[in-house]
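Before drawing any conclusions, I looked closely at one protein's amino acid sequence and its C-alpha cells, quoted below without any editing.
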Amino acid sequence: MSQLAKLQADFQAYLLDDAKSSSFIKAVIDDKKVSAKKRLSIYHDAYRLRIVEALATAYPQLKALLGDLLFNKIAREYITAYPSTYRNLRWYGGEMREHLLTTLAQHPIAAEVADFEWALSLAFDAENVPELTLQELSTIPPENWDTLSFRFQPAVKVVRTRWNTIRIWQALEAEEIPPKSAQESSYQSWLIWRKNFNSQFRQITEMEVIALNMAVMGATFGEICASLEVEMDYEQAMATAAQYLAGWLENGLISNVVLISFIN
C-alpha cells in the first residue's frame, strides 16, 4: 500500500470509528489557529451530521414521532451499528426497522413506522416500467385466461403492521396530533405501489395478500382461483380473483402478462 493510500485509509477509519481513539491525529500538523484535533473533529462530526440528515430525509415521520433528540441519538447509534457501504447515500438506512426492534423494543410502533416509510421511499424510487392496460388484457381469448401469469411493477410491496401505525403516520404526515399507540386485534396488511410519480398505499385483506403473493411469484390466474376455492365455491373464487385483478390493473401494478404452457 502506498503512503497516500494508507493515509486515505487511515482518514476513512478516523471518520468511521471513534475519533478519540484514533492515531490518525498524529498525521496532521497543528497550526497556531486551530489544533489538529479540533480541525479533524470538524470532519468527524460533519460526516455524521450529513448521514443523520439523510436518515431524517428518509424517515421524516419517524423523526416526528420520536422527536429531534431521540431521533438523533437513534440515528447516531445506527451509523455505528450499520456503517454505510453505499456509494449513493439514498440507499443508506434500510436496516432501521431491525435497529429499532433492538434499541426501542419497548416501542414496536417505531419499527413499524420505519418499515412503512422505507417501503414508501423504495416505491417512489423504483424502476419505471410500462403499465398493462385493461384494453391490452382484453385482447387475450377467454380460453387462455387459466394460463395467464402476470409481471408486476418493481414498486409493489406489502407491509404488515400489528399496531395502529398507519393512522399515526397519517396524522404525523398531516402535522396533526397522532392517536395513542394501540395494538390492533390482528395484523393489518398494506399494499404499496407508485402511481403518477407518487407512492400510494391501501389496506388489503389477508385473502388478497395470498392472491397477490401468488401472482407476484408467477402463479397463473387459474392457480390463483384454485387457491381461493379453499374459502369459497368456484364461481365466487373466479369473481374474487377477477375483482383483485381489476384493482391491480386500475392501480397500475401490473406491467406485463405471459401465457404459460403446461407440458403433460
In short: The radius of gyration is 25 Å. Residues 1-59+73-89 form one domain. The longest strand covers residues 183-195. The mean pLDDT is 88.
